[in-house]
Write a structure and sequence with these properties.
Blueprint lengths: L1 E9 L3 H11 L7 E4 L4 E3 L4 H5 L9 E3 L9 E3 L3 E5 L4 E4 L4 E9 L4 E2 L16 E2 L7 H10 L3 E7 L9 H16 L5 E7 L8 H14 L2 E3 L2 E7 L4 E6 L5 E6 L2 E3 L4 E2 L2 H4 L25 E3 L12 H19 L12 E8 L2 E7 L18 H17 L7
Parallel strand pairs: 1-2, 1-8, 2-5, 8-19, 10-17, 11-12, 11-17, 12-13
Antiparallel strand pairs: 3-4, 6-7, 7-8, 9-18, 14-15, 15-16, 20-21
Helix pairs in contact: 1-7
Length: 396
Amino acid sequence: MSSHHSVLVVGGGTAGITVAARLRNLPAPPDVGLVEPSDKHYYQPLWTLVGAGVFEKETTVRDEADYIPEGVTWIRDRVIAFEPRANAVLTESGARLTYDQLVVAVGIQLDWSAIRGLVGSLGKDGICSNYAYDLVDSTWESLQRFDGGNAVFTFPSTAVKCAGAPQKIMYLADDHFRRQGVRDRSRLIFASACPTIFGVKHYARTLEKVVARKGIETLFCHDLVEVRPASKEAVFRKLSAPVGELVMRYSLLHVVPPQSAPDVVKRSELACPAGWVEVHKHTLQHVRHPNVFALGDCSSLPTGRTGAAVRKQAPVLVENLMAFRAGQALPAHYDGYTSCPLVTGYGKLVMAEFDYEGRPAETFSFDQSRERYSMYALKAYALPQMYWNAMLRGRA
């Protein structure tokens, strides 16, 4: 019930698979074990377009086994405790796995139960969400059934994966309602715990124009805390003066759940006070346990939690981990790059790319703050292929 690996990767999502693949692609690869209980792997960035009726959700899922890199030992189990002082983890099956170096890539936890009345009501009577594979169908069904009234789209006060997703489905919904002839008897409301539409001004200016053009109402500094399905009411906590609560009726409610570090990380010695795996923001090495590294959604890196961020983090982590194994200084530097493809309608997208300082870090020579079909096509058709065929193979 125990085994040892030179490098143990915990988590077989985007971050874990990408790191494991890059390690195995090295000229002299280390022995790598990967702990992941799931038998399916999801391309979550496409769920926005699934929820808007563009793609079937089945196009976003593949067998996990097809993406475990050759030479990696797949341990189909779940880690329930980290013991960094003993260089070990404990698993659900009772196994004790030891390592020389550890990579933590366990993703983010969706805290649906943090919103009163929500559990048991999701996917019913106009309450929908793009944030889970088994729920994303409910978004498209809700959009199709919508016949007017308040369509409310929320953003929680916590960190979230893909911070643009809460508003992307709203813009697509606006387009759909106009096509169906129900927009003139509808109110679209973006009820966000954030103080602005987007944190990077270079792109926020465009989004403010999109909101104005579409006639969308913004309600900032409001955090969804309760849903009352029987009366179709959403209760928001006001985060700015005057404090208190706001009760709003809805016909459609797209919920983005509060999110946090997984409980297994929160209760471990690896966690920072906020619960994330506490790593240096440039090297991705743990600040107290030098043979531990982390990346992606579970890490304390103060940047967007996106697959694009992982694509830039993974090569930095691998280079630094191998330098650590060789007893050398860590040479690679992560600057906080992330990307947020902001869909603003069917066939329109703003490709936001920026670093830790909020400075644009754009790939193309043109102004990416403008809405473009080319960037929409990139997101819808090119990026999924790059993900499955290059990134998860350790080649991009």
